[in-house]
């Protein structure tokens, strides 16, 4: 099957080689065939070069014909601008933002002529308010220390890291390129819930070990959490933080399954699962079922990891349930070192369309809610907040910081940096650029040495741009961004300050019973640290 599929990808190249040979044979019949021979010989040489070069994955997998993509890219700006003006392009993320990533990853000019490409009077348009006295930030190595008073090994993290993507969802070469780039650039990679693979270790970059409901890598034979195996993995100095995944933005409340046919020996090794069986990731955890039990589980992870930063990731659903968790923090005095808020706009290769489009809270709203709830419980200074969900540009990161995040994670941005072209074939094992496939021939197209440099370069250039945006606002540090530094267009065309749209609520307002915020207070009063179930 693999050979037939490979023949299909190389069919044009094979035809060109064949036509070159036929033309040469026909030269003896007519000298005119020298023209066709030289034409096909040039194309053959192009194909050979495509197969051996390392910069373009699409050409390694589709020699000769892959150049059609770059031809269309040459005229894309004009086509894209027409679509923008006619309001036919419903996915702005795949427009300018993807170009920014490619340019920054490749280290080429990322400036654009002719002003903004956004419709500045449309509802929802957001902009940064700049200062008439801008500053200059010399240092673009922007960091935050993660670890509360109970953390023995705090982590000095970059403000921008690679979000959760598992080995199995991504190819071995993709994982290795990302982790090697993280090491070169001095930032971290979230392992995703698929465990720590040999390719994570080979890259040598900092890791955030994500533990999902399947407990992959640290599970018993029947799929329960194994604290001894966890302790062994967490002791690795490459592991800097531990993250319990409650839900992810693209499919919150939904489990997953990796069919037995897709489980390779390397995937089975990383996940500690048997070959020949479906690998099931349940919708909920078996290690805890109440908020109090969840806090004790986090306490266990902190103790077994030697005091490394421990936290959890979730997409906000029932707001009362998150308040149940916060009440459990207060009751047990076991407070996570960090919380990662994942917006529903996050991506995945395996989400039902209804879930991707309509389940879960968008990042901006979820982040604001988590930030203010922790403020209301007087816990905000003990918990760092990460943000994830289509945070690709420096502007995206700056706005997340203003709304309460301490750092940002990105999956899609770093996927673009290693060559993802959004072919949306992630679930088919036929990714044309070798990013989301386990096909060894397809993933060969992704050259680790070249792409790891692009990963590091994209991160560094994005951090530099973030520093420039902070300077434009008159700030000395991007972490000083606040809601009032941003404005947005309302439904009626009016300008709305960030303070109006996303205000910081008073410290302790939930504990003090401040009825000014009666909706949040009512939800808080209905929350119970002993159960996620609604109060009768």
Describe, in plain words, how this protein is organized in 3D:
With 536 residues, this protein is of the alpha/beta class. The protein has 3 domains: 2-61; 76-122, no CATH class; 143-522, Aldolase class I (TIM Barrel). It has 20 helices and 15 strands. It has an 8-stranded parallel sheet. Strands 1-14-15 form a 3-stranded antiparallel sheet. Strands 2-3 form a two-stranded antiparallel sheet. Helix 12 (319-332) links the parallel strand 10 and strand 11. Helix 7 (172-185) crosses helix 18 and helix 11 (291-304) packs across helix 12 (319-332). Residues 75-92 have low confidence and may be disordered.
Q: What are the salient characteristics of this protein?
A:
alpha/beta; 12% strand; three-stranded antiparallel beta sheet; TIM Barrel; 536 residues; 3 domains; 20 helices; globular
Total domain count: 3
Mean pLDDT reading? 87
* Alpha-carbon distance between the two ends: 57 Å
Please write the CATH class name of the largest domain.
Alpha Beta
Could you list the spans in which at least 5 consecutive residues all have pLDDT below 50? 75-92
Helical proportion, percent range: 40-55%
Instruction: Give the amount of beta strand, in percent.
Output: 5-15%
- Continuous helix count: 20
Using the alpha-carbon principal axes, give the shape.
Answer: globular
The CATH architecture of the largest domain would be Alpha-Beta Barrel
**How many beta strands in the DSSP annotation?**
15
Taking all Cα atoms into account, the compactness measure Rg is 25 Å
Fill in the CATH topology of the largest domain. Answer: TIM Barrel
Helix/sheet category: alpha/beta
> What's the CATH superfamily of the largest domain, by name?
Aldolase class I
Strand order of the largest sheet: 4-13-12-11-10-7-6-5
């Amino acid at each position: 099957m693999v050979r037939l599929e490979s023949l299909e990808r190389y069919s044009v190249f094979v035809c060109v080689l064949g036509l070159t040979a036929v033309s040469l044979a026909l030269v003896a019949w007519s000298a005119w065939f020298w023209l066709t021979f030289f034409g096909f010989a040039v194309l053959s040489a192009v194909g050979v070069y495509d197969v051996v070069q390392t910069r373009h994955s699409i050409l390694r997998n589709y020699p000769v014909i892959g150049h059609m993509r770059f031809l269309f890219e040459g005229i894309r700006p004009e086509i894209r601008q027409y679509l923008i003006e006619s309001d036919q392009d419903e996915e702005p993320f795949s427009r300018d933002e993807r170009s920014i990533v490619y340019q920054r990853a490749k280290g080429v000019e990322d400036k654009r002529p002719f002003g903004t490409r956004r419709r500045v009077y449309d509802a929802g348009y957001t902009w940064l308010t700049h200062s008439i006295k801008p500053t200059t930030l010399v240092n673009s190595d922007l960091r935050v220390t993660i670890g509360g008073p109970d953390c023995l090994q705090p982590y000095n993290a970059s403000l921008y890291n690679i979000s959760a993507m598992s080995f199995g969802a991504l190819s071995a070469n993709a994982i290795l390129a990302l982790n090697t780039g993280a090491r070169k650039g001095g930032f971290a990679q979230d392992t995703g819930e698929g465990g720590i693979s040999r390719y994570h270790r080979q890259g040598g970059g900092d890791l955030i070990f994500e533990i999902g409901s399947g407990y992959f890598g640290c599970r018993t034979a029947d799929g329960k959490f194994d604290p001894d195996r966890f302790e062994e993995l967490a002791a690795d100095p490459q592991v800097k933080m531990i993250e319990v995944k409650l839900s992810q933005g693209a499919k919150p409340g939904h489990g997953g399954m990796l069919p037995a046919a897709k489980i390779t020996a390397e995937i089975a090794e990383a996940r500690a699962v048997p070959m020949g069986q479906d690998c099931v990731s349940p919708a909920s955890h078996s290690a805890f079922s109440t908020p109090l039990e969840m806090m004790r589980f986090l306490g266990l992870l902190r103790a077994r990891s030697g005091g490394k930063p421990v936290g959890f990731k979730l997409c906000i659903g029932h707001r009362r349930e998150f308040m149940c968790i916060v009440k459990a923090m207060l009751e047990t005095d076991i407070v996570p070192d960090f919380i990662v808020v994942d917006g529903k706009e996050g991506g995945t290769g395996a989400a039902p369309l209804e879930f991707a489009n309509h389940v879960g809270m968008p990042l901006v709203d979820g982040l604001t809610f988590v930030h203010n709830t922790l403020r209301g419980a007087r816990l905000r200074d003990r918990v760092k907040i990460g943000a994830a969900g289509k945070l690709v540009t420096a502007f995206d990161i700056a706005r997340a910081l203003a709304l309460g995040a301490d750092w940002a994670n990105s999956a899609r941005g770093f996927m673009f940096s290693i060559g993802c072209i959004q072919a949306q074939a992630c679930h088919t094992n036929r990714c044309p650029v070798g990013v989301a496939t386990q096909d060894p021939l397809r993933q060969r197209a992704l050259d680790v040495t070249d792409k790891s440099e692009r990963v590091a370069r994209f991160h560094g250039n994005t951090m530099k741009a973030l520093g420039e945006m902070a300077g434009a606002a008159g700030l000395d540090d991007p972490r000083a961004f606040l809601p009032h530094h941003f404005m947005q267009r309302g439904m009626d065309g009016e300008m709305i300050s960030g303070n109006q749209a996303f205000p910081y609520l008073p410290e302790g307002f939930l504990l003090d019973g401040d009825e000014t915020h009666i909706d949040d207070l009512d939800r808080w009063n209905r929350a119970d640290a002993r159960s996620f179930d609604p109060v009768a």
